[in-house]
Amino acid sequence: MYKSLLRPALFKFDPEEVHYFTFNFLKRFCRIPGALSFLKAKYEVKDARLEREVFGLKFKNPVGLAAGFDKDAKLYNELSALGFGFIEVGTVTPKPQPGNEKQRLFRLKEDSAIINRMGFNNHGVEEMVERLKKNKNVLIGGNIGKNKITPNENAVDDYVYSFEALFDHVNYFVVNVSSPNTPNLRELQDKEPLKNLLNTLQKKNELKPSPKPILLKIAPDLTDEQLMDIIEIVQETKIAGLIATNTTISRDGLVSENKNEMGGLSGKPLTSRSTEVIRFLSEKSGKTFPIIGVGGIHSADDAIEKLEAGASLIQLYTGFVYEGPALIKEINKKILQKGL
């Protein structure tokens, strides 16, 4: 029904406006008595064989929602009812910021892809905290970034601020230094700035009575040499693991009219590269840390490839937009079928 009826209608309108419309619709729908139970019955796959214990956390299934969809933690309960095993909120910054000028979100229908240059638009970490205080049982990841106006030499302060603010309200953290839409942000992926940032957060983490897993989200555009540096950094800083990968700045093989829009590309064109990165990291590290695989998952087979390449968990974003919530159920059923 989603792909045959809803998606063609929604795709006639501006993608950002459609995003807000569907958010509001799902929010209102779930206020109807029994609506959440209806969604869970339709989309959730309950089976103990789907459960995963990764970096000390228990996931009811390995299929999560990637950051960027629920930037301000407005809909995590409703989205969880669609069958996701965990929800990653953000990217959030210490202060609210509007993001880049519109239009900043583009569908590439012929490529089953999206280009975004949102620019970490969000309402700030304090507002997110207030929403997360109402969470009862959804496993939440907090994806943190820096404000656009914060110079790179002070970026650590932004990450520490959000880390401290969110600590009691998320299950794990993700350090986002790989978005292409905040000026100079990717410079923080360089070896020394990245080690400094992660070591600082780890020191803060170790002071807590119960430290939380900290993960690093990396770009798919890194060279093999840079990926080897990432492995070394993970092992040196003792962070919990990686998320591979964020959006790409590559435009190879695209055919859509708006293929040259600036921003990060996600969707099917990223499928192979993100899997290559996962396999490289898993093999070269000797599987010494977990990887959450994300990028171009548009089918159950795509998800299985990520898991077989070395991912412990996976996340959806663009595939969820194009394929609808049935994709979550299809992936979980395929995992059971494959015995993974």
Automatic annotation (TrEMBL):
<feature type="binding site">
    <location>
        <position position="181"/>
    </location>
    <ligand>
        <name>substrate</name>
    </ligand>
</feature>
<feature type="binding site">
    <location>
        <position position="267"/>
    </location>
    <ligand>
        <name>FMN</name>
    </ligand>
</feature>
<feature type="binding site">
    <location>
        <position position="143"/>
    </location>
    <ligand>
        <name>FMN</name>
    </ligand>
</feature>
<keyword id="KW-0285">Flavoprotein</keyword>
<protein>
    <recommendedName>
        <fullName>Dihydroorotate dehydrogenase (quinone)</fullName>
        <ecNumber>1.3.5.2</ecNumber>
    </recommendedName>
</protein>
<feature type="active site" description="Nucleophile">
    <location>
        <position position="179"/>
    </location>
</feature>
<keyword id="KW-0665">Pyrimidine biosynthesis</keyword>
<keyword id="KW-0472">Membrane</keyword>
<comment type="similarity">
    <text>Belongs to the dihydroorotate dehydrogenase family. Type 2 subfamily.</text>
</comment>
<dbReference type="GO" id="GO:0006207">
    <property type="term" value="P:'de novo' pyrimidine nucleobase biosynthetic process"/>
</dbReference>
<dbReference type="InterPro" id="IPR005720">
    <property type="entry name" value="Dihydroorotate_DH_cat"/>
</dbReference>
<dbReference type="GO" id="GO:0106430">
    <property type="term" value="F:dihydroorotate dehydrogenase (quinone) activity"/>
</dbReference>
<dbReference type="InterPro" id="IPR013785">
    <property type="entry name" value="Aldolase_TIM"/>
</dbReference>
<feature type="binding site">
    <location>
        <begin position="67"/>
        <end position="71"/>
    </location>
    <ligand>
        <name>FMN</name>
    </ligand>
</feature>
<keyword id="KW-1003">Cell membrane</keyword>
<dbReference type="GO" id="GO:0044205">
    <property type="term" value="P:'de novo' UMP biosynthetic process"/>
</dbReference>
<dbReference type="GO" id="GO:0005886">
    <property type="term" value="C:plasma membrane"/>
</dbReference>
<dbReference type="InterPro" id="IPR005719">
    <property type="entry name" value="Dihydroorotate_DH_2"/>
</dbReference>
<comment type="function">
    <text>Catalyzes the conversion of dihydroorotate to orotate with quinone as electron acceptor.</text>
</comment>
<feature type="binding site">
    <location>
        <begin position="116"/>
        <end position="120"/>
    </location>
    <ligand>
        <name>substrate</name>
    </ligand>
</feature>
<feature type="binding site">
    <location>
        <position position="176"/>
    </location>
    <ligand>
        <name>FMN</name>
    </ligand>
</feature>
<dbReference type="Pfam" id="PF01180">
    <property type="entry name" value="DHO_dh"/>
</dbReference>
<dbReference type="InterPro" id="IPR001295">
    <property type="entry name" value="Dihydroorotate_DH_CS"/>
</dbReference>
<dbReference type="GO" id="GO:0005737">
    <property type="term" value="C:cytoplasm"/>
</dbReference>
<feature type="binding site">
    <location>
        <begin position="317"/>
        <end position="318"/>
    </location>
    <ligand>
        <name>FMN</name>
    </ligand>
</feature>
<comment type="pathway">
    <text>Pyrimidine metabolism; UMP biosynthesis via de novo pathway; orotate from (S)-dihydroorotate (quinone route): step 1/1.</text>
</comment>
<feature type="binding site">
    <location>
        <position position="176"/>
    </location>
    <ligand>
        <name>substrate</name>
    </ligand>
</feature>
<feature type="domain" description="Dihydroorotate dehydrogenase catalytic">
    <location>
        <begin position="50"/>
        <end position="336"/>
    </location>
</feature>
<feature type="binding site">
    <location>
        <position position="91"/>
    </location>
    <ligand>
        <name>FMN</name>
    </ligand>
</feature>
<keyword id="KW-0560">Oxidoreductase</keyword>
<feature type="binding site">
    <location>
        <position position="217"/>
    </location>
    <ligand>
        <name>FMN</name>
    </ligand>
</feature>
<dbReference type="InterPro" id="IPR050074">
    <property type="entry name" value="DHO_dehydrogenase"/>
</dbReference>
<feature type="binding site">
    <location>
        <position position="296"/>
    </location>
    <ligand>
        <name>FMN</name>
    </ligand>
</feature>
<feature type="binding site">
    <location>
        <begin position="246"/>
        <end position="247"/>
    </location>
    <ligand>
        <name>substrate</name>
    </ligand>
</feature>
<comment type="subunit">
    <text>Monomer.</text>
</comment>
<keyword id="KW-0288">FMN</keyword>
<feature type="binding site">
    <location>
        <position position="245"/>
    </location>
    <ligand>
        <name>FMN</name>
    </ligand>
</feature>
<dbReference type="InterPro" id="IPR012135">
    <property type="entry name" value="Dihydroorotate_DH_1_2"/>
</dbReference>
<feature type="binding site">
    <location>
        <position position="71"/>
    </location>
    <ligand>
        <name>substrate</name>
    </ligand>
</feature>
